Amino acid sequence: MRKTLKEIAELVDGEIVGNELVVITGIAGIKEAEEGDITFLANPKYLPLLDKTHASAIITSKDIVSAPKPIVRTDNPSLAFAKIVSLASPTEAKHPQGIHPTAILGKNVSLGKNVSLGAYAVIEDDVSLDDNTIIYAGCYIGHHTKIGSDTIIYPNVSIREYVTVGSRVVIHSGTVIGSAGFGFVTIEGRHQRLPQVGTVVIEDDVEIGSNVTIDRARFDKTVIGQGTKIDNLVHIAHNVVIGENSLIIAQVGISGSTTIGKNVTLAGQAGLVGHINIGDGAVVAAQAGVSKSVPPNTTVWGYPAKPLDEAKRINACIQNLPKLYNLVKELKKKIEELQKELKNS
User: What is the homologous superfamily of the domain 3-88 according to CATH?
Assistant: First the structure.
């Protein structure tokens, strides 16, 4: 990579403040950048690094008016930087092409145009794969499953029977979709499994990370709404419904029959009980334990989860418990001394 700052600004439709002829030869994070690199600053909490970075230029938001180094002001510095990274270091994905001779196809399999199947992929009876879909090596697609067009399923994914996957979906390695929900009834001290005869529906433009499990419904369907993105190591139980464009971050666990609205964020390691509703636009902060429904456009935190401001106040009180304990101890001692003086007077 060797471009002037002016050329880079044109690529991202940015406004330059400073020397537009600075030559950029590399890209790096704001802490690691050296002379010749371009970096970016999107989070205001890193503003002090503007004075410390060794980068030759910085992509910023339009809130930044000036800096010690030349800057490129943009509407979305993270997106602009990502575009520069992709231009500087294009990734050439080498997807499987065609049908590998070791792939196993069942009866009545319907393949669209330009479908690719990797080595040892197993496609059971009555499966439908639409145009341009790519199934990597070692995947299992159960019978009567339907997968839309332009979908990519990476190695060692298991999709069970009667599952529906939309178009332009990406599913990363190790994920299991359509496994039996966790349902048992105890009879005479023994746990008997309840049949799980529903299905899973993954709508269009969903991305699912590695080692995610999405259980099939006991009845009806488990649903992942259009445009939702799911991080690695997430568990979604039976009959969960997730609305459009939600973000489910790593190690989240969602219990059965819970409904998640549109544009919801569930941060890392959040845990949700079953049979509750999370309203549209809500945010569940990291490690929150959600035991009851959350209204729309509300941020909750803590265990049990409470509205963020209330949770912060409670946490502040808890931090002061040692001081409060010592204060009560001193007051108790003084009261005892006063009682003793009153008794002797």
Answer: MurE/MurF, N-terminal domain (3.40.1390.10)
Q: How high is the pLDDT of residue 129?
A: 98
**DSSP of 234-294, one letter per residue?**
-EE-TT-EE-TT-EE-TT-EE-TT-EE-TT-EE-TT-EE-SS-EE-TT-EE-TT-EE-S-B
- 286: pLDDT strictly greater than 80: yes
* Residue 90 pLDDT level (bands cut at 50, 70, 90): low
- Amino acid at position 265, single letter: T
CB 115 within 8 A of CB 97: no
Query: pTM of the predicted model, to two decimals?
Result: 0.85
CB 206 within 8 A of CB 229: yes
pLDDT at position 343, please?
A: 85
Comparing CA positions, the residue from 11, 81, 78, 2 lying closest to residue 36 is 2
Query: Which residues make beta-bridge pairs with 72?
Result: 16, 59
Query: Where do the domains of the chain lie?
Result: 3-88, 104-308, 312-345
Helix (H, G, I), strand (E, B) or coil at 14: coil
Per-residue confidence (pLDDT) for residue 345, from 0 to 100:
76
Class of the 104-308 domain? mainly beta
- Three-state DSSP state, 42: coil
pLDDT above 70 (res 252):
yes
Q: 238 catalytic, yes or no?
A: yes
Q: Of 54, 172, 235, 238, which residue is the catalytic one?
A: 238
Res. 35 pLDDT band, cuts 50 70 90: very high
User: Per residue, what are the HEC states of 131-171?
Assistant: CCCEECCCCEECCCCEECCCCEECCCCEECCCCEECCCCEE
**pLDDT at 71 (0 to 100):** 95
